[in-house]
Design a protein that fits this description.
The complex is a heterodimer. By secondary structure, chain A is an alpha+beta fold. Chain A has helices at about 25-35, 130-140, 155-175, 195-210, 280-295, 305-315, 315-330, 340-345, and strands at about 45, 60, 60-65, 70, 80-90, 95-110, 110-125, 180-185, 190, 215-220, 225, 230, 240-245, 255, 260-265, 270-275, 300, 300-305, 335. Chain B is about 30% helix and about 25% strand. In chain B, helix 5 (about 235-245) runs antiparallel to helix 6, helix 6 packs across helix 7 (about 270-280) and helix 6 (about 250-265) packs across helix 8 (about 285-300). The chains are: A alpha+beta, B alpha/beta.
Chain lengths: ~350, ~475
C-alpha cells in the first residue's frame, strides 16, 4: 500500500503553513514519545511479520473500448505526490512497537524535491490503542464519535496511524499548492473508517478551489470487466491512452468521488486504475493526465513522483535495524528471541525467514 | 567491536564508526571465561554487509541520475542511528597468536566466545613487550602507526637473509642505510655493493659535516682507489672471476691454472707476463683464444694492476672494519656490467677466502639490485653456501621477480615497502615467513617511507613502521631535469 505524509511546509518550497493542519505531526511526536515511555526496561522480540490486509472483494464494471488518446502537454505544472508507510519493528510483552513515516515529493522546474516526516515510533498496546487512535483522529479527522463504531485490531494499528498521516499530508498539499497535479496512491473511494466521506470531499474541494487536480493511481485493483481485471485485457492501441469505465456502484456507506479510468501511459504491459476527481470537467481531467505526461517521467506507466514518494517513505532493512538500535538504547529494552514454532516444528519445510 | 566470524586463522570483526581501526593495527580478542586471548592483526577493511544499504543508496537517485533534494523531519533523531549502522565496517583480521597468562603461542585453534569476548586495540608497545621484540643491540627503525617507536635487535639480522623490496622511491635504500649504519655502530663488518654511488657519503651529515661514522666508511671505487695486483691475488679468487664472471669453460680454466702456476713459480705474476704466457702457451688454439679474450677483459677493466704499492687492499679495509666496525662501500657506479661482475666476484671470493681462514669472523653483505651483477644461479650460493662461511646478505631491489622463489622461501626478514603491481605482490607473498593475504593487502596501501616489517626481527608479528629519517648525506636523489622549475 502507498501512503504519504506531508512535511512541515517551508517557504522555500512555497508551501504555506496552515496553523490548523500542523497539529498532526505535533500530536504524532507527543503520542510517539508518550507511548514509548511505557516500554522502558522491557523486553523486545525483533521478528517481523508483514502486516497486510488484502481486500479480496471484486466488482464488475464495463469498459469503453474506445480509447481516449492522450498527447503530452508540456505546460509547466507542478506535480506532487504523497505516500506513507509503516512497519512493525518489534514486539513487547504487552504490544508492538511500530514505525510510521511519510514523504511528500514534488517536481518543480524539472527538479524533484522531497520532504519526509518521521519515522515516528509508537508502542501500541491493547490498553492504549483506542486512546491513541482517538487522539490522532480528533486532531485531524475531527470525528469524535466515529472511532467507536469500528473495531481496532492491534496489528492493524500501524496501518491506521499511517493512514491518518497520509490523509493529513494529502489535505496539506491540496491547501498549499496551486495549479498543480496532486497524485495519490489508491483510489478516490471514501466512507471507510480511515477515509470519512466528508474528509475526502473537503480534500477534493480544497484542491479544486486552488485549481489543483487530484489523480489517484491504484497499483492493484479488483475491478473486472467481462471477467478480466480491467488492467489486464486491454484493446490494442498505442499508448498513451485511457479507457473509461461504467457501472461501478460501491456499497454504502462507501462512495466513489472520482471517475474511474484505466490508464496505459507508456508502452509495455503496465496499466493502472486511475481515479480522477469526479467534480471537474471532462476536458480538465484529460488535460490533467496530459500535463502529467508532459511534466513527469513515466516509467512502466507509473509517475516518477509517486514512485519516489513511495520509495522515500518505505523503510529499508538497515533503517529497521537502526530503529531497533534506537529503541533498545533509549528505552533500555532487552532483546529476546522467542522460538519460532514454525521453524522448530517444520525446520526448513516451515514457512518463515529462510535466512534467519 | 564485535566478533562476527572465524574461518581458519581469519577473524571477521564488526566495527562501528566510533571505533577506529586501520590496516596493520593489532587487536586483542579477550575471552575472560576461557582465560585466553587472541592477538589478531587487521589486514583488510570492508563495508559490513548490511541489508538494505543498496536500496538506501539507490533511492536518493531519481531517474536521470540527478540527486533528489529534500529535507527530513526526524523528531526522534533516528538518522544518526541509521548512519551508525550503515557506516559499520568489517575488519578482516589474521590471527597471529594466542596469549594465555604471559605466554604467547602461535596458535589459533580455539574459538573465543562471540557474545562475551571483548575486543580492543592492542598498543604496539604492549605487543612488542609480549613478543619480546627487544634485545641488547637495539636498532630504532622508526615509529609505528600509533607513534610508538619500533626497535629491532641487531642480532636478529645476524646470520640471517634479509630482503628489502618495494617500488621505486619508497625508501628501500634509506632503510638499508639505516640498518647498515646501526650494524657498523655495533662493530659489525659490512660490505655494500653500491650500484648508484649513494653510500659513499654516509660519513657526512646532511649539511656536509663529518659524523660519527666518518672513520668507519671506506669507499672503494674499482679502477681508481680499488685495484688488485696479480701478485696479491689468490688463484681460486681469480678462477672464480674467470669462471663465474667471464664464463671461462672448464678446459680453458685448467690451462689457465697451469699458466698461473708456471708464472708464480717464476715470480712473474704480472699482467704483461700473463699475456705473454697465454700467447706462447702450447695449447689448443680455441683454448688460447678463450684465455686471451678473458685476459683482455681483465686488463680492460682497469681493476688489475702490477703495482702493488698503489693499490688499496680490500683486506686492509676489512681488517680495519673488523676492529671497530665499518663498512666497505664498493662503488660500482659508472662501472660496466662485465667489470661490475669481475669486481663483485673478486670481493665475494676474497670474503670467502678470509672467512674460511677465520681471518674474518663474519660480514654483512648489502647487495643493491644484485641481479645486475650476479648470475642467477649464483644467488643460491650466496644464501646457502656463503651463509655458512659467515656472509649474511641483505638484498635490496625494486624488481622482486628478479629474486628467485627459493630465496624468498629462505628469507628470515622481509622489509616490504609499497607495491601496487599485483605481479610484484604475488612474488613477494611467496616468502615463507608471512602469509600472502597480509602482504597483498597491507603492502598495497603503504604510503612512501612506510615499511611492512616481517620475519624474525619482529618475532613474526608483521609491523608497519615509518622509517625514521637519517642525518646523513644520502646521495640517493634522482637527477631531475625540471628540478628548479617551480
Amino acid at each position: 500500500m502507498i501512503q504519504q505524509h506531508t512535511i512541515t511546509t517551508t517557504q522555500k518550497y512555497n508551501f504555506p503553513h496552515p496553523t490548523t493542519d500542523t497539529m498532526l505531526p505535533q500530536r504524532l511526536i507527543q503520542l510517539s514519545l508518550h507511548t514509548l515511555k511505557t516500554v522502558q526496561n522491557n523486553t523486545i522480540q525483533l521478528n517481523q511479520q508483514t502486516i497486510q490486509q488484502p481486500n479480496t472483494e471484486t466488482h464488475t464494471i464495463q469498459l469503453n473500448p474506445k480509447p481516449i488518446t492522450l498527447k503530452p502537454n508540456r505546460t509547466q505544472t507542478t506535480i506532487a505526490a504523497v505516500d506513507t508507510s509503516n512497519i512493525k519493528i518489534g514486539e513487547t510483552p504487552t504490544g508492538i512497537i511500530a514505525a510510521v513515516r511519510g514523504a511528500a515529493v514534488w517536481k518543480q522546474n524539472k527538479h524533484y524535491h522531497y520532504t519526509r516526516l518521521g519515522p515516528f515510533l509508537f508502542h501500541i498496546t491493547e490498553e492504549n490503542k483506542r486512546q491513541l487512535y482517538q487522539t490522532l483522529a480528533n486532531a485531524y479527522l475531527n470525528t469524535n464519535n466515529t472511532i467507536h463504531a469500528y473495531p481496532l485490531n492491534l496489528t492493524q494499528m500501524p496501518n491506521r496511524i499511517a493512514n491518518l498521516l497520509e490523509k493529513w499530508l494529502q489535505t496539506t498539499l491540496t491547501k498549499t499548492l496551486t495549479n498543480s497535479l496532486i497524485l495519490l496512491d489508491g483510489s478516490l473511494t471514501a466512507g471507510t473508517p480511515d477515509t470519512p466521506t466528508q474528509l475526502m470531499k473537503e480534500t477534493l474541494d480544497n484542491a479544486r478551489k486552488r485549481n489543483n487536480t487530484v489523480l489517484a493511481f491504484s497499483k492493484m485493483t479488483n475491478l473486472r470487466a467481462n471477467g478480466y481485471l480491467i488492467t489486464d485485457a486491454l484493446p490494442p492501441h498505442t499508448p498513451p491512452y485511457m479507457l473509461e469505465t461504467y457501472g461501478l456502484k460501491p456499497k454504502p456507506p462507501t462512495v466513489l468521488l472520482g471517475e474511474v479510468y484505466v490508464a496505459k501511459l507508456t508502452n509495455g504491459n503496465y496499466a493502472f486504475r486511475l481515479d480522477i476527481d469526479k467534480e471537474i470537467a471532462y476536458e480538465q481531467k484529460i488535460e490533467a493526465v496530459q500535463k502529467l505526461l508532459g511534466n513527469d517521467h513515466l516509467q512502466q506507466s507509473y509517475p516518477e513522483t509517486l514512485r519516489l514518494a513511495h520509495i522515500l517513505c518505505t523503510f529499508t532493512a538497515n533503517e529497521v535495524i537502526a530503529m531497533q538500535h534506537f529503541t533498545t538504547r533509549h528505552y533500555n529494552l532487552k532483546i529476546v528471541n522467542r522460538p519460532d514454532m514454525h521453524r522448530l516444528l517444520f525446520g526448513p519445510y516451515g514457512k518463515g525467514d529462510l535466512n534467519a | 567491536m564485535k566478533l562476527y566470524k572465524k574461518e581458519g586463522n581469519i577473524l571477521q570483526i564488526l566495527s562501528f564508526p566510533n571505533e577506529t581501526a586501520e590496516k596493520g593495527d593489532y587487536l586483542l580478542v579477550e575471552d575472560a571465561d576461557a582465560g585466553k586471548a587472541l592477538i589478531a592483526q587487521v589486514i583488510d577493511m570492508q563495508f559490513a554487509s548490511i541489508p538494505g544499504v543498496l536500496e538506501e543508496l539507490l533511492r536518493s537517485l531519481p531517474d536521470g541520475g540527478e540527486l533528489i533534494q529534500g529535507e527530513d523531519f526526524d523528531p526522534l533523531e533516528i538518522a544518526p542511528h541509521i548512519t551508525y549502522i550503515q557506516d559499520a565496517s568489517l575488519l578482516v583480521c589474521k590471527i597471529r597468536a594466542t596469549i594465555e597468562g604471559e605466554t604467547l603461542t602461535p596458535s589459533s585453534s580455539w574459538l573465543p566466545s562471540r557474545s562475551q569476548s571483548t575486543i580492543k586495540k592492542l598498543p604496539i608497545p604492549t605487543l612488542l613487550k609480549l613478543a619480546k621484540v627487544d634485545g641488547k643491540l637495539p636498532i630504532l627503525m622508526g615509529s609505528t602507526k600509533d607513534a610508538s617507536p619500533l626497535t629491532i635487535d641487531a642480532s636478529s639480522l645476524d646470520g640471517r637473509l634479509n630482503i628489502i623490496t618495494g617500488k621505486k622511491e619508497t625508501g628501500k635504500s634509506h632503510l638499508s642505510k639505516l640498518l647498515m649504519l646501526n650494524l657498523i655502530g655495533y662493530g659489525a663488518t659490512v660490505v655494500v655493493f653500491d650500484l648508484n654511488g649513494e653510500y659513499h657519503s654516509l660519513g657526512m651529515t646532511s649539511d656536509g659535516k663529518r659524523n660519527t661514522y666518518y672513520d668507519k666508511i671506506h669507499v672503494l671505487t674499482p679502477a681508481q682507489n680499488f685495484k688488485v695486483a696479480l701478485k696479491q691475488l689468490n688463484l681460486q679468487v681469480l678462477l672464480g672471476i674467470l669462471i663465474h664472471a667471464l664464463h671461462l669453460p672448464g678446459t680453458s680454466a685448467r690451462e689457465f691454472r697451469r699458466i698461473w702456476q708456471s708464472l708464480k713459480e717464476r715470480d712473474m705474476l704480472t699482467l704483461h707476463e700473463l699475456g705473454e704466457a697465454i700467447r706462447n702457451w702450447h695449447c689448443n688454439q680455441h683454448v688460447r683464444d678463450a684465455l686471451f679474450s678473458r685476459y683482455h677483459a681483465l686488463v680492460n677493466s682497469g681493476f688489475f694492476t702490477d703495482e702493488t704499492g698503489g693499490t688499496t687492499l680490500l683486506e686492509e679495509c676489512l681488517f680495519k672494519a673488523k676492529e671497530h666496525g665499518g663498512a666497505i662501500i664498493i662503488n660500482l657506479r659508472n662501472t660496466s656490467t662485465i667489470d661490475r661482475q669481475i669486481v663483485v666476484e673478486y670481493v665475494l671470493g676474497k670474503l670467502v677466502e678470509l672467512l674460511t681462514s677465520w681471518k674474518l669472523k663474519a660480514a654483512f653483505l648489502f647487495a643493491e639490485e644484485a641481479h645486475l651483477y650476479l648470475r642467477e644461479t649464483y644467488w643460491d650460493d650466496i644464501v646457502t653456501r656463503m651463509r655458512h662461511f659467515g656472509i649474511f646478505t641483505t638484498f635490496i631491489t625494486n624488481q622482486p621477480d628478479t629474486i628467485r622463489e627459493n630465496i624468498y622461501r629462505q628469507a628470515d626478514n622481509i622489509f616490504l615497502f609499497n607495491f601496487t603491481n599485483e605481479h610484484d605482490l604475488e612474488v613477494v607473498s611467496r616468502a615463507a615467513r608471512v602469509d600472502a593475504e597480509t602482504v597483498k593487502s597491507i603492502a598495497r596501501d603503504l604510503p612512501p617511507h612506510y615499511c611492512l616489517t616481517l620475519g624474525k626481527v619482529v618475532k613474526d608479528f608483521p609491523m608497519v613502521v615509518k622509517v625514521k629519517t637519517l642525518d646523513v648525506k644520502t646521495m640517493g636523489e634522482t637527477r631531475l631535469f625540471f628540478k628548479n622549475a617551480d
